[in-house]
Enoyl-(Acyl carrier protein) reductase (Lentzea flaviverrucosa), 84 residues
Amino acid sequence: MGLARSWAAELVDQAVTVNVVAPGPTDTPMLCDPGRATTPPQLPPMGALIDPAEIAGTVAFLLGLDARNITGQALVVCAGASLG
């Protein structure tokens, strides 16, 4: 996150935004492969793994005009997993 904030500060006068998307437990083949983990993934508090398209939607939002004033931020997309 520090690097993104540094870049955001460097590029702010050029109207370039720099942000971080921090995904939580995402429904991917790697996460759900029983050969890679000894225990299945734990579901986040909202009850389901995050669909990769939802992460892509967050990235698309940050790339759009509605997010033109968001810079130097981290958006945590975790279905409540970071709540504790």
